Fold:
Amino acid sequence: MKTAHAVFEKVGVPPFPGSLGLVNAYLVQALEKAGYRTRVQGPVPASKIQLLLPLHLAKARAEFVAASPADLALYDDGGLRLCPPGRQWARRSAVFYHGLFWNTGSWLGNESIDLHLGNSDYLARVLTSLLAFPDWERRRCLDPRAFGKVAAVPLALPCVEEPDGCDVPGAEIPFAVRALLDSGDVVGHALQPDKQDALATVSILATLNELAREAGGRPVRLLTLEDNLLGSRLESMRRLLQPRGWTPEDLFVPVPALNQRALFQLMRQCAFGLAYNTVPESFGFYVLESVYNGCPVFTNGCGNMRHLLPEGHGLDVFEPAAIVERGPQACEVVAHRIHAALMDRAALRARCAMGRAYIDAHYHRRAMEAALGAALALPEASLVDFESLQVELGPLVRQYDRAARIVVSDLRSGVLSPGQARALAELPGRSCAELKALDPDARSLFDLGVLSLREAGE
Structure:
């Protein structure tokens, strides 16, 4: 039997350290189904002094060395800090990315990694664009095998496998929140930590309440994490709302971090979810969980959120490009869209039911296991013929308003210069062989992720 090291930041044992801990447990099981006898190397608990004097890590590393080399080492992005990839540990190395934030220096351009696995098709495309970042002087990509060593292994959704919620620590729904949910007010949720665009969220919620007041309807309240209503954030919200005659206390309701069962119960009682985010989601657990529990979500589609579900399946992706120029005022059109949708709750429930059926059909462990097995069976990646590669619009771009020269992107949105706009009109579809010299405007579009490279015919 083949052997594998699973080197994970979060090891999947109950109580799970969040949904990622459970997903890592699914990965271990998928490895075993693919025919690997798997040894899990997880984080070693340590005090602050032990972190300064890491003898505990020396012991863990000695045990790891004794079990090496394995046929495969599968890391998650956090696990790279525990043990860097190397042939002394395994004959083949793969990294599974829950996101791109952790330990970037360990994997970006590291040619000793044989396989990069994104947790969605979107993340796999972003990984490919990073590994294929062009070096125009040396006429090569950052990783010369970029296009043969990236694959997508879309996640099994924990709420599909554990519909009542998996064993993740957290609070129960507070009594005051339960009372609000039963009050008849229109209640939405936005409980992701440090991801919302605060200006957009405040503008949308204030406009929703103005529309409700004009129509003689019930107030609209938004549940948000307690940490989002502290210190400078709270004062910033207060300044934004004061000219409109509202306070944060009028519109926002603080909620502690909930356990997963409580979160699902809350979602089932909310009228809508709001995910106008600045942080691009590599996958999108939260919005899928909401739709799965019958609560529609309105989002700008940041990251993979715009790719999760077909249109009309409970996830409404809408973002006016004017937000880039006009800021929060442009979000009023979003509020009008949400207000109109909330007038027909039956239609929203029907869309969420379609979304739940789609989620059941696509985000399960069998699909995840099949994708991982297929990825591990890929042949060794070949060298890239740089000159044959073609320019394309990068996967980070959400939309481009050609007339206004506005790019809305997961990295940075803004107005292009005339030179950049001209390059964006001329370069897509052209091969690298045609582009012997690029001016600074054209190069800047690659630096911003507006343009990237792909293989010809893809």
In short: The longest strand covers residues 2-7. The chain has three domains: 2-156, 169-362, 386-454. The radius of gyration is 24 Å. DSSP finds 18 helices and 19 strands in the chain.
